[in-house]
């Protein structure tokens, strides 16, 4: 088993006033040559956005973009849809940028901050037709069991959002003293696991809130919760860029 540990405080940080951004991987003005990607996972940003503020219209292409709101209200508009669309905690949003798309993302609240994860995954197909989707995932369906959020558009998994990469995004909420064994899809895959909240032990490593571990070259690994904990798993092919 191969592991890398990314403690929460080791992430890149940018304070833009209206935006407080933590970067697990090199992004914008923060560059760390040892933190460019984890396999096909290119970006994991942990953002807090002030009320009524956000990202103006900007382009993307050939990237799979997943957004997971954690608190507040995200409003999204893109060149595929003229109307603003709300994305709330409990929902997940995906956008395949493909041949090119323009979009805007703002905090839809006038008085509450918006917190979210934004994830970029390198696609396995170039210049696809852009597409957008979002879906609600009930909290009860991840209590002490794995809840699959996103899978490959080529897979037959029902109930998940689809992207152009052989990746699996999932969540689990573990009660204190509960354990869980994560089974990897193949020997060519690795898992980037982030503790959203709580404290867990993975491969003898204690991980607190927003700490992460990358696990590869193994068939499975065990997660032990030392307090009530929420985790995000991002399983991707271990590409070498």
Automatic annotation (TrEMBL):
Domain annotation Pirin N-terminal: ranges: 11-121
GO MF term set: metal ion binding
Cofactor requirements of the protein: Fe cation
Record: residues binding Fe cation: 58, 60, 103, 105
Pfam family, one: Pirin
Entry keyword annotation includes Iron: yes
Keyword ATP-binding among UniProt keywords: no
Span of domain Quercetin 2,3-dioxygenase C-terminal cupin: 150-236
UniProt entry keywords in alphabetical sequence: Iron, Metal-binding
Organism superkingdom: Bacteria
Assigned protein family: Belongs to the pirin family.
Protein name stated in the entry: Pirin family protein
Provenance organism: Pontimicrobium aquaticum
Organism lineage: Bacteria, Pseudomonadati, Bacteroidota, Flavobacteriia, Flavobacteriales
């Amino acid at each position: 088993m191969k592991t890398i540990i990314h403690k929460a405080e080791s992430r890149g940080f940018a304070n833009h006033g209206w935006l407080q951004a933590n970067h697990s991987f090199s992004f914008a003005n923060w560059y760390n040559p040892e933190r460019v990607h984890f396999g096909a996972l290119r970006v994991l940003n942990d953002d807090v956005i002030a009320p009524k503020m956000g990202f103006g219209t900007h382009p993307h292409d050939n990237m799979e973009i997943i957004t997971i709101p954690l608190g507040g209200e995200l409003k999204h508009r893109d060149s595929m849809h003229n109307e603003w669309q709300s994305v709330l905690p409990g929902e997940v949003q995906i956008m395949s940028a493909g041949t090119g798309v323009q979009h805007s993302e703002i905090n839809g609240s006038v008085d509450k901050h918006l917190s979210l994860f934004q994830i970029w995954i390198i696609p396995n197909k170039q210049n696809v037709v852009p597409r957008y989707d979002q879906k609600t995932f009930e909290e009860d369906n991840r209590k002490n069991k794995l809840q699959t959020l996103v899978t490959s558009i080529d897979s037959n998994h029902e109930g998940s959002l689809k992207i152009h990469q052989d990746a699996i995004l999932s969540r689990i909420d573990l009660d204190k003293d509960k354990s869980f064994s994560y089974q990897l899809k193949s020997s060519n895959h690795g898992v980037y696991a982030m503790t959203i909240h709580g404290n867990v032990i993975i491969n003898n490593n204690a991980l607190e809130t927003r700490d992460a571990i990358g696990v590869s070259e193994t068939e499975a690994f065990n997660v032990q919760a030392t307090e009530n904990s929420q985790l995000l798993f991002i399983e991707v092919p271990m590409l070498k860029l």
